Every structure is written in structure tokens, then in C-alpha cells.
Known about the structure:
The chain is of the alpha+beta class. It has helices at 39-42, 65-68; strands at residues 3-8, 19-23, 28-32, 34-35, 54-55. Strands 1-2-3 form a three-stranded antiparallel β-sheet, with no helix packed on it. Strand 2 (19-23) and strand 3 form a beta hairpin. The longest helix has 4 residues, at 39-42.
Amino acid sequence: MALRLLGKDPESQDGDSPTLYYDEERDTYLFQSWKVTDPGRLAQLSLPDHETVIEFPKRMMRFFPEVTGGE
């Protein structure tokens, strides 16, 4: 698997998360971020058992190539 690091949250207190990766083989993104565990928020979603939900700050959107013009 060829993962390419796209960016880490510059405001992260410990410098580890959230982090965005691009999987070049699958043409998908992977986010390392905060797992949503709040039952009230999860109840508002149609979430299959084989999926999970993560949360990331809007400021991380700048690391998506589609937002930066492919850079």
C-alpha cells in the first residue's frame, strides 16, 4: 500500500492527529482523527456495523488536493 502523507493539523497539541493521507493504489483518503463515540450524535446517522465515523476540523480541508488545485 502506497500511502502519501498530505498534512497534519498545525493546531494539534501533540502533533499527531488529525492527519490526512492519500492511498495512491485505491485513490482514496485516510484520516487519522478523533473517533465519534457520542450516542446522541451517532443516533442521527445511518451507520452500518462495518463503518465508523471520525471527526476532523474544517481547517484540515486545505490538505485535500482538490481544494489546493492538485498541489
